[in-house]
Amino acid sequence: MKQISTQVVIVGAGPAGMILALLLEMAGVDCVVLERRARDDVLARIRAGVLEPSAVEFLRESGLVTRLDRLGRPRNGSRIAWQDRPSMMIDVKRWTGTEMMAYGQTFLTEDLYAQSDVLGTRLFEEVDHLKIEGIDSSRPTLEFWTPKGNLHITCDYVIGCDGSRGHCVTLIPEAKRQIFKRVYPFGWLGILAETPPVDDFTYIYHSEGFALATQRGPNLSRYYVQTPLDQGIEAWPDDRFWETFLHRAPKDLAEQVVTGPSIEKSLAPLRSRVVEPMRWGNLFLAGDAAHLVPPTGAKGLNLAISDVRLLSRALLAHYQDGTDELLDRYSEDALRRVWTASNLSWRLTRLLHVFPGEPAIDARLRLCDYEELLENEDLQRVLARDYAGVSST
Questions:
Q1: pTM for this model (two decimals)
Q2: Would you give the DSSP letter of residue 197?
Q3: CB-based burial, 278-287: b 16+ in 10 Å, e otherwise
Q4: Residues β-bridged to residue 267
Q5: Can you list the alpha helix ranges (DSSP code H) found in 220-324?
Q6: pLDDT one-digit tens code per residue, 249-272
Q7: Which CATH architecture group holds 77-99+184-269+355-387?
Q8: Positive or negative torsion for Cα 296, 61, 117, 149
Q9: What CATH architecture applies to the domain 2-75+102-180+271-346?
Q10: Is the dihedral of CA 75, 76, 78, 80 positive or negative?
Q11: Which of 13, 252, 284, 298 is most buried, by CB atoms within 10 Å?
């Protein structure tokens, strides 16, 4: 078994893990990244990519993302279209003076892997049989299998970026770990089509269910419809999807939509999940390992970037300045942002979706909330700031 000694081991090579690894390496901190999947599988995942202004600024300053300003599309905000009512903009530009950026997570992951090749990141893929011990000691250990052989690593810190079903969260003793959860009684059926996208990211409320129009590139569109979880992908041929989406969309939006065969189709359950604490001993959690939010608020990737921004600064303060104040505060600081984003995601999900079996009064109250939002600029300002990830204080 090969023996390795390093400073930081990062479990998970998604955006959170790779951004953190590259920032540490560029600052001279030695690290190793473990990923259970093969590179091609990681790069093939097509995920959301709406970046908050602070995330854009951070990625630009880091120098890790080389194509952001070439391929990204600045967005003033997102539109809400409501059945039989006027639409409105979540006008980030107006209320914060900043812009969102549409930049597909696939592009971001490609950028990060390209940079890791340049830096020579020690990235072990197809990791299996991972065993982590001693996170409450000064030198945790990890043992695992790869197609190229078995390895044993000792390190100072373990960073869990291995997603909601990963191993790292289970290392926090059950008696000390709180997991807050909400499971929604519906999902999003999404398709990807090689067609020109509509002008605006548009959330759609319809009495038969939610829908969403987004973009992934100049000729790559992503559309979603709310659907029961007991209807699998096989129940949604392209013709049924387009008929449903166009029926829920307002006329002006439906006239913009260019339909076409799907090149990818998925059904995503909606869930909320927050783990407390995000640190135990010398284990730190980041990204989906620590929290999940419904995609309604476009917060998943942004929260992951926020986590690693905090964590990179804390680790560099430890190794460069010999101070652990930021490490000791990491969980508290990260969770403050996590709960704010979780709250926004819940508010938008509740506003824009039809909950099965709900009493008629809920639909009336939902409409009341929307009409108040239309008429009240103070509420619009708060929503735009929360959507952009800008503190209201």
A1: 0.95
A2: P
A3: bbbbbbbbbb
A4: 189
A5: 238-248, 251-254, 300-316
A6: 999 999 999 999 999 999 999 999
A7: 2-Layer Sandwich (3.30)
A8: negative
A9: 3-Layer(bba) Sandwich (3.50)
A10: negative
A11: 284
